Amino acid sequence: MNPAVVLLKMSTAHTLQNIEMEDWASHSKNLFSSKLALHDQIICAAQNGAHKFNIFFQAASGNLPQLYPKQLKDNLTVKLRNVKLIDHIQFTRQNRLLISTEHLETAIEVSNIKAIMGIPTVCSVISEQITSRFLLRNVPLETSLQELTDELEAENTIKIHEARRFLSDKSRNIATENVLVTTYGTNLPQHIKLWLTRQEISLFIDKPRQCRKCFSFSHPTSKCKNESICEICGEQHNIQSCTSPTMNCILCKGPHKATDLKCPKREEERKFLKFKCLNRLSFIDARRKCQIDCCSWLSTISPIFDNGFTTPSLAAHAP
Question: Is the model's pTM score more than 0.85?
Answer without folding.
Answer: no
